[in-house]
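User: Please run a holo structure prediction.
Assistant: Happy to. Please share the sequence and the ligand.
User: Here you go; the ligand is cobalamin.
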Amino acid sequence: MVAPIRVLTAVPICDGHDSAINTINLEFIRHGIEVIYLGYHRSVGDIVRAAIQEDVRAIGISSYNGGHVEFFAEVVDLLRKRGASDIKVFGGGGGTITHKDATKMERQGVDQIFFAGTSLTEMTDYVRKHYGKPRRRTAAKSSDMELARKLTEIEEAHAKGKRRTAKQIRNPQSAIRNPKVIGFTGPGGAGKTTLIDELVLRVLNRNPRARIAILSHDPSVVGEGALLGDRATMINSQNDRVFMRSMATRGQAGGLSPATHDCLAQLAQSKFDYVIIETVGTGQEAMPFQENGIVDLTVLVMNPDYGSRLQLQKIVMLDLADIVVVNKSDLQRARTAHSEIEQRLEQNRRGQQLIDTVAKRHRDPGVDRLFDLISADRAR
Ligand code: B12
């Protein structure tokens, strides 16, 4: 088995035209490509940082609001400055990018511009042909790049059926666990990513030297391509003190990837204060952090709209989580949800914490409380 091609896609700053890239992302993932989607209104710095951390083969930019000649050139330039010229740049923007512009952009180092009328198949074939072969690497120029490449090695080793890379990663139990590892899980749409992003902001603000790693998971489409879209929701995590890696489940059920443990072991040996793992949106039976010692603390994030009280009896993570969060607690059903979940947790007699949050709200007191709980044992 060969690991899927990974590309990053994004729309430039001051540009909200995301319809084209959404269509293209979907076509790519259907053809076995893993797409890390950064969203729209993204700066050159955010795009290049994400591309390096995700160790992608190429960056696909969709640009409609003008300024494309300069914007694409700045991306190519910053990649070069950061020693990441092995990451290629391509893109399109319908009729807003003229053939004359494209010629100039290609001279400036852009691989290819696609014009109006190009079929989705042509674009997919291009990516497979040009970004599917092994690449030549130069020495890593930053700690982010070095770490990103190690994570790629781990994922590639797993794709070939090997659990460990030649570099002999220690397993999570024996690794020196400096960072606090926190696992976030819960159903899709509960607001896990937004909540994590708000917690990241609090960590960054409280400690000006703190560094955080995030391992974020999204499902692979029948074991092949995947849309890794959590970065598109992140605002505060677009920061040089945050190392984020998006992982596809690559055919494994349960919320994590086959390579998660080894990647976590690698991160545990790097200099982070916190490592946050976010699972895919999970179902009632999921126990993603059951394997011994994988996390220090588990947080189950729930949406108040889980259905009837009976549904709660079936959610296994309600027995296992250290903290249960009812996010979107501004919704009408939230008070009922809080008391139903509270009663359910009381039956466990484990002293589990229950917190209400509105993660989308800035300075939410519930998120502050959650932050105090998870950072209680960390230096201020
Ligand atoms: C749909 C659309 C909108 C929608 C956007 C919806 C959305 N969420 O994306 C809405 C109505 C919201 C909108 C708003 C605006 N729009 Co508008 N919009 C368009 C429109 C009609 C189509 C663009 C599109 O999605 N095409 C579909 C894609 C799939 O096809 P394509 O463009 O031919 O692209 C091909 C290739 O280039 C390639 N491709 C494209 N991107 C990428 C990326 C990669 C990685 C790859 C591999 C390939 C690739 O894929 C296609 C293959 O055939 C264009 C006009 C036009 N006909 O192009 C104007 C257009 C882009 N908009 C324009 C403008 C001015 C605006 C507004 C500023 C209008 C206003 N005054 O409010 C706002 C700004 C929005 C914002 N926040 O940025 C102008 C831009 C002018 C310019 N740059 O000089 C255009 C050109 C219309 C015009 N003629 O004036 N817009």
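The first helix runs from residue 19 to 30.
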